[in-house]
Amino acid sequence: MLQELIEVQRLKNLDRTGWSLRGLAPRTESVAAHSFGVGVVAMLLVDELASRGVKVNSERVLRMALLHDWAEARIGDMPKTASTYFGTGQRKRAELAAFSDIVSGLGASADLYRELYEDYEQRSSVEARLVKAADIIDLLVQVLTLERAGARGLDEFWEVAQAPNFSLDGPAKQIIEELMQELVKLRKEINQSAG
Question: Domains of the chain by range and CATH?
Answer without folding.
Answer: 2-194 (1.10.3210.10)
